Amino acid sequence: MGGQRTVILKEGTSSTQGREALHADIMAALAIAESIRSSLGPKGMDKMLVDGFGDVTISNDGATILDEIEVQHPAAKMMVEVAKTQDDEVGDGTTSAVVIAGELLSKAQALMDKDVHPTVIVDGYQIASERALEFLRKIAVKVKANDKTILRKVAKVAVASKLLAEHKDFIADLAVKAVLEVAEKSGSGYKADIDDIKVEKKPGGSSTDTALIQGVLLDKEVIHPGMPRRVQHAKIALLNCPVEVEKTEFDAKLNVESPDQMKGFLDEEEKILREMVDKIASSGANVVICEKGIDDVAQHFMAKKNLLAVRRVKQSDMEKLAKATGGTIHTQLDDLKASDLGRAGLVEERKVSDDKMTFVEDCKNPKALSILVRGGTERVVDEAERAIHDALCVVRDVVVQPEVVAGGGAAEAEVSRMVRGYAQKLKGKEQLAVLAYAEALEVIPLTLAENAGMDPIDSLMEIRSKHQAKQTRVGIDPYKGKVSDLAKLDVYEPLAVKVQALKSAGEAAAMILRIDDIIAASKSKEGGAPKGPGDSAKEEGEGES
Ligand SMILES: Nc1ncnc2c1ncn2[C@@H]1O[C@H](COP(=O)(O)OP(=O)(O)OP(=O)(O)O)[C@@H](O)[C@H]1O
Ligand SMILES: [Mg+2]
């Protein structure tokens, strides 16, 4: 970089360089971290988000909040990415990751104000991050992957900060049961794919009506009143082709000259549909689950043959059904054979609140599970679903990698102390950067204290001195509003969540700190004029908007 450059930019393109660019990026990223900071921890506040259509979401989940707010600044977008990555990889700790990334940037800004070059900071952060991960692994406690007691504790902590906190025992039990059921032995450990657990929500009832169902739950009703509502020993035809007479792609005009001719057409259509249904029935199927549509006339024939049919099922659900029932999804009716049919002990339509849902239970593959989430209103159900998602994720994390660390900011405080110790071996500006990293980690206990209405600085000083005195699991107890030993309070979190949070926070901070040039295309006409260097900047490599 640097030197003479010839850049030919399109008219309206703005370019911000050097410190000014970096400062704008840091400010934008900080704004994001600042916005969700107050939602960290069990005493954190929730956010109410209203989208362009006026739909309201109330959430405490970092990933959800950041997903809902439309962020324009590219550096701010990177922070949103941090939350996304965290959510995809481990499912929890999204708020923490973003808050740590923000703090790393804020500390970096302070160093730059003291004339430390961004590259030195990035390098220092890199060294510190490697050590921090190593220390984190060192302080982790090994547990048994199928130890229900510890899994329940971890799940409870993940749910504690959500709307559903009052039902955390209930949700934790459910999550542990579900994950252990889908977990499989793999080598010396376990693997568990929580995609095997289908979460379906239906407003109504109370949160404790949320139930685990052995099988696949479809938010669809049986399509014809003449069909059976309950089929035992189900043999299921899984179709991804419409049971309809295909429409041609182009229009043609036919002149019908007599009523007989008209009848001929309709008869022919009916015949095609009848043959389709005959093909399905002759395979031995007694249940039809179709991703596409089923014609009214075909429905009538199916009802006559005593078939139970469901249509317009989501593709993802079809895949789950195929896995669960051992059936093959068919794109053509011609080659449907008995061996392609999926098996389930029971397929039944049941009424849930005002709606009807189809339960495919007792499947050939016993690992197929669903969770039916209930709750007073739509928003409660939505947030309950997110809490269950977090609980399932953390239980999975521990089952797959059975190591935990103390929560309440204790792990972060301890790693911070260790990194600070390591920094003593370094010299000069590098030491400053490593120390800044160590301090940045303390933002977690600090923020937890702040959100619990405690004095953040006093609490942090108390935590520091206890950690110096080898009380390594001391952190914030937001419920009592005091500094305590979190291990004694059973507050444990998966090591995987903490590792990922440090990794993604560190990477995002480094990426932002390396930028010294923002080249922003002008906004497209309908978007209006760019508001300033910050607002209009665009990510590198992105096409023109
Ligand atoms: N009972 C508790 N006592 C002390 N700290 C707790 C307790 N329950 C949760 N925490 C702490 O709260 C923090 C987690 O808060 P929160 O769940 O709001 O954010 P997150 O997990 O970082 O992000 P996400 O929004 O993805 O859940 C962790 O540091 C955790 O240790
Ligand atoms: Mg959480």
Explain this structure.
The chain has 545 residues and is α+β, with helices and mostly antiparallel strands. 46% of the residues lie in helices and 17% in strands. The protein has helices at residues 18-37, 62-68, 74-89, 94-113, 118-139, 148-160, 168-182, 259-282, 296-304, 315-325, 378-400, 410-423, 428-441, 443-451, 456-468, 495-513, 533-536, and strands at 14-17, 47-50, 56-59, 141-142, 184-186, 189-191, 197-201, 211-213, 215-218, 230-239, 287-290, 308-310, 329-330, 342-352, 355-363, 369-373, 403-406, 474-477, 482-485, 492-494, 517-520. Strands 9, 10, 11, 12, 13, 14 and 15 form a seven-stranded mixed sheet that branches. It has a three-stranded antiparallel sheet with strand order 4-17-20.
How far apart the termini lie comes to 26 Å
User: Regions with pLDDT < 50 over 5+ consecutive residues?
Assistant: 526-545
Helix content: 40-55%
The coarse overall form would be globular
State mean pLDDT (0 to 100 scale).
86
The secondary-structure class comes to alpha+beta
Number of strands: 21
Bound molecules: adenosine-5'-triphosphate, magnesium ion
Note the beta-strand portion: 15-25%
Q: What's the number of helices?
A: 17
Major beta sheet summary: 7 strands, mixed
CA-atom Rg in angstroms: 29 Å
Entry keywords:
545 residues; alpha+beta; seven-stranded mixed beta sheet; three-stranded antiparallel beta sheet; 17 helices; disordered C terminus; binds adenosine-5'-triphosphate; binds magnesium ion
